[in-house]
Amino acid sequence: MNDTLLRSVLAGFAFPGALAECAEIKTGHINRTYRLTFREGINTFAFHKPEEVMENVALVTEHLRRAVEARGLDAQNRVLRVIPSREGRPLVYDADGGAWRAYNFIAHAHSVDAVESPEQFGIVGRAFGDFQSMLSDFPIEKLHDTIPYFHDTVRRMDNFEASVAKDVAHRAECAAAEIAFVRARRDAMGAIVRMIDAGELPLRVTHNDTKCNNVMVDDVTGEALCVVDLDTVMAGSALYDFGDAIRFGASTAAEDERDLSKVRLDMDLFTAFTEGFVSRTARGLVGAELDNLVLGALVMTFEVGLRFLTDYLDGDVYFRIESPDHNLARAKCQFKLLSDMEAHRAEMEAVARRLVNKFL
């Protein structure tokens, strides 16, 4: 983004003081994030209604603020605060129609892009468990469905089949093994959607991007302070948040690792996150949620691989890529991780049951 356009956007926000520094934070696949105090633009291809995104964020952060204060804690560094425009709105639009918003900077804190130890991943688990716990009484009907059918795995598989049939980028032949992998798991991976439809799983506020780098931790104590990147807060299943965290954080490799021999589930990391998460949620989640945590990990790993594969077949229209086969490499990596989870599912289930029972 050029400096002139960036500064024109900054002028629309009611920032205290003058701009001293601007640096891009190069994480994530979709949005671009800048550090001023804290600054990011919204990708309107992914988020068609940015106003609704920010309404969700404002509602959720205000609820979190009250919950943190009810615990006797200072919310200033523990909850994101939306910085309004000079007109009091949560967004500023640039000359090209791009949508921008700003938050307070979480001071004396950092995030990590990859889990460095089981202890650290346990802290992340507690952070996302607290997120679920503090929002357990949020009126779910107030949230916009900003990305319709985001975790509707059944619908995503239907869209995938349409992409295979159209083959607009002429890539289906190169992905024949991955296409077969998806088709072999169609019924099993639709289980969470079916349980939600049947009323067996409740809808809750879900973060929907529970990567470890979306938790800010104190520079000195290592304590989790704040969950960030709330673009995708919507109604969904707690299994999605648990599962995506395991998919991303308990893998032994990056999500686009090309050497598949390096890709497997780290059971120590799985155990640490699960313990942290259920220590905060075991008494708040219903039995069907606690019984299906591992299913959440399998489904989310499958779904993310499916999304990468579908985007590859569609010609890379959604995720940013670094090479023509980047999305295919990502899909292969996720499917290898899923295969390892399937091989160790009984062990994962035993660990989850033991930890749930520990905190009930």
Structure description:
This protein is of the alpha+beta class and 360 residues long. The protein folds into 2 domains: 3-107, 2-Layer Sandwich (Phosphorylase Kinase, domain 1); 118-359, Aminoglycoside phosphotransferase (APH), C-terminal lobe (Aminoglycoside 3'-phosphotransferase, Chain: A, domain 2). Helix content is 45%, strand content 10%. Strands 1, 2, 3, 4, 5 and 6 form a 6-stranded antiparallel beta sheet that branches. Strands 7-9-10 form a 3-stranded antiparallel beta sheet, with helices on one face. Strands 8-11 form a two-stranded antiparallel ribbon. The longest helix is centred in the last third of the chain and has 22 residues, at 293-314. The model has no long low-confidence stretch (mean pLDDT 92).
- What's the name of the CATH homologous superfamily of the largest domain? Aminoglycoside phosphotransferase (APH), C-terminal lobe
Cα gyration radius (Å): 20 Å
Number of strands: 11
Examine the secondary-structure arrangement and name the CATH architecture of the largest domain: Alpha-Beta Complex
The CATH topology of the largest domain is given as: Aminoglycoside 3'-phosphotransferase, Chain: A, domain 2
Top CATH class of the largest domain: Alpha Beta
Mean pLDDT: 92
Taken from the alpha-carbon principal axes, the silhouette is globular
Helix coverage percent? 40-55%
Span from first to last CA?
50 Å
**What is the N-to-C succession of helices and strands?**
HEEEHEEEEHHHHEEEEHHHHHH
